[in-house]
Amino acid sequence: MDGAGVSETRSTCPYCGVGCGVILRPDGAGGLDVRGDPDHPANRGRLCSKGSALGDTLDRAGRLLAPRISGQEVGWDSALDLVAKKFSDTIARHGPDSVAFYVSGQLLTEDYYVANKLMKGFIGSANIDTNSRLCMASTVAGHKRAFGTDTVPGSYEDLDAADLVVLVGSNLAWCHPVLYQRVLAARAKRGTKIVVVDPRRTASCDGADMHLALASGSDVALFNRLLVEIYEGGAFDKAYLRNVDGFDAALEAAYADDPTVTGLSEAEIAAFCQLWMRHDKVVTVFSQGVNQSSSGADKVNAILNCHLATGRIGKPGAGPFSVTGQPNAMGGREVGGLANMLACHLDIENPSHRTAVREFWQAPAMPETQGLKAVDMFQAVGDGRIKALWIIHTNPAVSMPDADAVRDAISGCDFTVVSDITAETDTARLADVLLPAAAWAEKSGTVTNSDRTISRQRSVLPAPGQARPDWDILADVGRRMGFRAAFDYQAPAEIFREYAALSGIAGYFGRDFDISALRDLDDPDYDMLAPRRWPLTEAREGGRFFADGQFFHPDGRGRMLPLRHRAPEAKRAPRYPFRLNTGRIRDQWHTMTRTALSPRLSAHLAEPFLDIHPGDAAALALEPGDLVQVQSPQGNAILRARISSDVQQGDVFAPMHWTGETAPSGRIDALVAPVVDPVSGQPESKAAVCAVTKLAAAWYGFAVTAGDLAPDCAYWARARTPSGYRAELAGTTPVADWEAEARRLFGLPEAEVQSVIDSARGIARLAFYDEGRLLAALFVAPEPVAVLRDYLVTLPGAEAPQAITGAPPADQPDPGPVLCSCFSVGVNTILTAIETEGLMSVEAIGAALGAGTNCGSCRPELAELLARCATPEAAE
Ligand SMILES: Nc1nc2c(c(=O)[nH]1)N[C@H]1C(S)=C(S)[C@@H](COP(=O)(O)OP(=O)(O)OC[C@H]3O[C@@H](n4cnc5c(=O)[nH]c(N)nc54)[C@H](O)[C@@H]3O)O[C@H]1N2
Ligand SMILES: Nc1nc2c(c(=O)[nH]1)N[C@H]1C(S)=C(S)[C@@H](COP(=O)(O)OP(=O)(O)OC[C@H]3O[C@@H](n4cnc5c(=O)[nH]c(N)nc54)[C@H](O)[C@@H]3O)O[C@H]1N2
Ligand code: SF4
Ligand SMILES: [Mo]
């Protein structure tokens, strides 16, 4: 409670694996004020743009409020009886392996624990897999091969203490912004060097000393070369290597690899190796450019090899560091949410581990082999081997590779249950039964971030309608399936205690994951639990692993692996000449079900795009703003071309975020082949092949509206604005009557209209009014529409007699696209201030305009604007 009697609650941000602490304070209008928690060790008060905008995303308008069976609202009893009956019947008729759960690294640990216990212990199948298969599986496999368990050796403090931070396949500036700010702070303080290893130039390169734009998929060759240099330069740690097997074989394989496949010059590679070898305190941060690859586990081990060879692991400021994507990716790995794990880092294929867990759970049945991994699981759904499927907290119809096939598989499945917070997702639309889940801020539990810190999420808002927490829905189904005692949970604290007790058994087997010190936590202590880093036993809390040369293989030794470069599976060919890289943008989270509710987050990049090199664009006769058709052997997309030398010639990059709800032709996973790493089963999301052609558009349109809109054309993308929606549109067939079409689009059959229509030139401009207030406006042209979008989005709902001109009155400047989402500062405003006020630094821009002073996520882009102003010839 503060002085005014308003209570504040500490919780954790529901987005990325940095796991920032937040302080939540009800705003009195059903929403929340959200600020960074100065006492949380992950962020010390900082938040990025997404965390800062959490308050904007709590809108209840689109929430799923009641269970539905075949689209009809029903009560919980009907819905859950049906789920329990269908699963029980299917198991009775076709065996336990005919059903599956597909879950998420965004579930809380308590949710995840119950799901895993129900499937592995009581249904008796290991067919539970998670979207972490698309995310962290290669790291899990790499860690297990090298260390004997899935252990993250270091902690965030290592980023503060390092002299060199190497970002491999990580766009830390946009995907783990608070960690990137931490690295930049260390750089300001101690001169930390930063290297980025990424085929693409990203925002993370802006603060970097070196960017190695290697060929897609060639990381193993690069780190093999580093291993050779470590050997030849005498930088290996002989004493440490006494505890590690495989150095000679790894070195021999490394010698056999050819570093030229990286496409980097000898000088670049030599400079990188020198830098790496010169700095004992080196942290190699890696993420999806490493994991999402058909050689993902090998890439992980190639990095681990170099750290093991030099003994630079588990020491302050030194170690390999897998940064996790989702808020509870780590928790999911710990509870055993992957089809090839058991629980608490125990192995499903180890009989004594299995027996111990079975006895602890008093489980009737335990699978003896691994279950189906995500890609195989959806193939089994597609060919009818899986007959009942429960999808929880994830949107596979968008995010799985070969997404159109996955969508068809789900819709063809005999019985699909989807638990979500909204019915408006590509996956939820396919469900037979939809279950309303309580969302972040409405439910309680724990999550584990990238550096093994367990933090509480706490409920501060009532769940709307009939929504219930995921653990509660799962446990209820468990009870209805006949497992009363095992799923008789009343509160998440009970689940957590049981889980902590189980981890003690893992500790007994000598596994790393042991939080048994928390097994007797009473309810008030659980409520108050402050962030703690595991392991948490009577003997030990937190700290680092492996500096002492003690590993978790049965012989206690670490392992280096012999590795050879393998190119991505899909090969470029004349028909598919481009390499399609995919990933994230700064202000959207995955399939956008939450972040797209925020107008300020939607302003940064409002439509799906394809980055293409100027040389390739010229060969395809592309102009800036053209739409392109992108085709792969799996599927098609239409995206906005952004011509940029950030990507290499022959490579293109597209974001993963757009969906059937926001831009149906932008579902990029429709193009990605379902190719996986043979070791980890993780899909190769970053290296499909594709063809690119200019879309033969008959017309292009731009619309703003205070209401909703119902586009029906080849390309559309809509985004929230403070006053409603904005949309980009394009069609491949001419429209005869633009007024009729616009009235249909906006659902305004009668509204008063102003219009300028020039059919001969293909131009139409229409503005609809209600007593002088603008309701909606549409601008159509035969080429990409040139209107001042950032001005137009402010007009709906206001008196705007001149809207149809598409431009502000002469005395009102156009702010340009929003760069700083926290303070809604546009590019033009910043450029003007740089010029007229002579601003020379990001700090000066902040002092003048506020931009970049809150979350700091846009600081790399501000730096780039400054650099561009300083050297105009460098601008594209
Ligand atoms: N804003 C935002 N932040 C997020 C998320 C989000 O949706 N939005 N999602 C969270 C989640 S779940 C995850 S997993 C993380 C992901 O975080 P990151 O892994 O940092 O993000 P990505 O953009 O997927 O990919 C990182 C980079 O890998 C590069 N890359 C592609 N191929 C290769 C290659 O062969 N070698 C190398 N070295 N690099 C390559 C890409 O060009 C890209 O810049 O982000 C988390 N944070
Ligand atoms: N091409 C390509 N594809 C990729 C990637 C890539 O880089 N490139 N990255 C992959 C990676 S790393 C990841 S992690 C995945 C992410 O992909 P997904 O997991 O499919 O994406 P999300 O949008 O996070 O889906 C979360 C869903 O849970 C719902 N939800 C929110 N809160 C709750 C809740 O409390 N309970 C329940 N039951 N539901 C809730 C949301 O509305 C949403 O529908 O995408 C993968 N796919
Ligand atoms: S870095 Fe941003 S998205 Fe990630 S946990 Fe922190 S505030 Fe949330
Ligand atoms: Mo992820």
Automatic annotation (TrEMBL):
Coiled coil: none annotated. Belongs to the prokaryotic molybdopterin-containing oxidoreductase family. NasA/NapA/NarB subfamily. GO terms for cellular component: membrane; oxidoreductase complex. InterPro entries: Asp_de-COase-like_dom_sf (IPR009010), BFD-like_2Fe2S-bd_dom (IPR007419), BFD-like_2Fe2S-bd_dom_sf (IPR041854), CT_Nitrate-R-NapA-like (IPR041957), MoPterin_dinucl-bd_dom (IPR006657), Mopterin_OxRdtase (IPR006656), Mopterin_OxRdtase_4Fe-4S_dom (IPR006963), Mopterin_OxRdtase_prok_CS (IPR006655). The keyword Transit peptide does not apply. The keyword Iron applies. GO terms for molecular function: 4 iron, 4 sulfur cluster binding; metal ion binding; molybdopterin cofactor binding; oxidoreductase activity. This is Assimilatory nitrate reductase (NADH) alpha subunit apoprotein. Its cofactor is [4Fe-4S] cluster; Mo-bis(molybdopterin guanine dinucleotide). It comes from Marinovum algicola. Residues 6-62 form the 4Fe-4S Mo/W bis-MGD-type domain. Keywords: 4Fe-4S, Iron, Iron-sulfur, Metal-binding, Molybdenum, Nitrate assimilation, Oxidoreductase. GO terms for biological process: cellular respiration; nitrate assimilation. It comes from the Bacteria.
